[in-house]
Amino acid sequence: MSMKLGFRPVLEISSADMVKQIMKSHDIVFSGRPHLVSQQRLSYNGLDVTFSSYGNKWREMRKICIIRLFSQKQVNRSFIPVCKDEVSRMIKKIARDASLSRITNLSEMVVSFTSNTIYRVAFGKRCEDDGTIRSRFFDLMHETQALAGGFFVEDYLPWLRWIDRVSGMSGRLEKIFRDLDSFYQELIEEHLDSNRPKSMQGDILDYLLGLKREGSSSVDLTLEHIKAILMNILAGGTDTGSATIVWAITALMKNPLIMRKAQAEIRQQLAGKKELTDEDDIVKLPYLRAVIKETFRLHPPAPLLAPRETIEKCSINSYEIQRGTLVYIKSWAIARDPKIWRNPDEFVPERFLDSEIDVRGHHPEVIPFGIGRRGCPAMLMGMAEVELGLANLLYAFDWKLPPAMKEENIDFDGLPGLTMHKKSALCAVAKPSIVTGM
To answer: Nearest Cα to 95, choosing from 395, 402, 426, 386?
Structure first.
């Protein structure tokens, strides 16, 4: 569907076939990014990977991320050990709730797990170890997500930018930018201290500062480049993983037979172990992976993929698309298209057991990490976080609804934003499984 928003031509894509045609014949044409007010400001005028314009500089920055920061080797060496440790901490906290017969706020637990994991990988320390840092970090990320996906009149009617000032949106954007910049700068100064803790040696920020110092990158890295990349990592890494795990548990609570089937598979495969150890275990759990795929389909973390912009004129199915067209790919609509999916609104992991469809950007039917050249460079890290987190929660505990709550009362309302979180917190009663002996 095409339309005009102010001076911008806009194309909405809600068809997997259309996405497939674009990726096959016009991927480069559709690889631009629009210069939207909030995204440009938060990315230091496009010095990051997510919101930068398509071109040589973007290619080199993406190469740094894919090859040096988020390769399978780096994920296995740097991310998985931290993720496993944070999983273990989360399981112990839930076990304490269970021992005291307390209801567990799973939404809070999972956000804490993903936030601490990403914070440690990026900065070499846990945000939760300091209550002030934790509160500040969560507030920053919440406001960043709200504004990165917020509506600014200037994006569509530049001559009415004064409305953004009057509404307070411009002021909020400038404040969060200054607060984020100060936050990044403090962390950078900590990492430049030669007496910094050993845990801060070898994390992502330390590595990026090393590239800048040595000049070993094809990009002339500045501190603003580094801060922009940190924004991508923190905003994307803490939000999408936690949202997906919470949606998965919510769907399983609504479908207890499916939950028991997933738990039986995990416990049979891992009997005798205290927790999952590595990705080798996940490969042997096809039903769990089907549950995760179905969660990504029914509850994509980004219902609308980050907007693209055509960098030149093209034609698809005899339809002419102008250069500079703003393009929105509606992953939510594609994932619920009855032409593709039987009973699209039902949670049915079995649909993926004999399917070649994956979620890594090769099949437009399910694209939680984007697709094509603009796919998420940290996809391997994101998948590992979701797989290890969800598998352990299902392995270690049996889950029941709080007293007086019934399956039909479970809601699936989402919050608006770049990432769709569950509107109300997911609370449940955990009972340690006999298999794990937690």
So the answer is: 395
- What DSSP state is assigned to residue 2? E
CA separation for the pair 226, 184 (Å, rounded) = 9
- Token output for 166: 């009057």
- What is the block-wise mean pLDDT of the chain (438 residues), using blocks of 10 residues? 84 92 89 96 95 93 91 93 95 95 95 95 88 88 90 95 97 97 96 83 91 82 95 88 96 97 93 68 93 97 92 89 94 93 96 92 91 92 95 94 85 82 92 69
- State the distance between the two ends of the chain, measured CA to CA, in whole angstroms: 53
Does 359 fall in a domain?
yes
Q: How many CB atoms lie within 10 A of CB 346?
A: 11
91's enclosing H/E stretch is helix 80-99
> Strand, coil or helix: what is 215?
coil
Who contacts 89 (Cβ-Cβ below 8 Å, separation ≥6)? 113, 116
Beta strand 326-329 with 8-13: parallel, antiparallel or unpaired? parallel
User: Is the separation of the CB atoms in 338 and 344 below 8 Å?
Assistant: yes
Number of domains in the chain: 1
Q: What is the DSSP string of 381-437?
A: HHHHHHHHHHHHHHHHEEEEPPTT--GGG----B--SSS--BSS--EEEEEE-TTTT
Decide: 419 and 302 in contact? Cβ < 8 Å: yes
Contact, 394 vs 263, CB < 8 A? Answer: yes
**How much helix, strand and coil, in percent to the nearest 5, is found in the chain?**
55, 10, 35
Tell me 372's DSSP state. Answer: G
Contacts of 286 (CB under 8 A, 6+ apart): 265, 353
d(CA 52, CA 61) in angstroms, rounded, equals 9
Q: Could you tell me the CATH number of the domain that includes residue 339?
A: 1.10.630.10
Residue 427 in marked binding region: no
Domain coverage including residue 311? 2-427
Does residue 358 belong to any structural domain of this protein?
yes
pTM for this model (two decimals): 0.94
Q: Tell me the C-alpha distance between 14 and 367, whole Å.
A: 12
- What are the C-alpha distances in Å from 288 to residues 50, 61, 72, 391? 30, 34, 21, 7
| Sheet (strand 397-400) strand order | 104-105, 427-432, 397-400
SS3 label, residue 253: helix
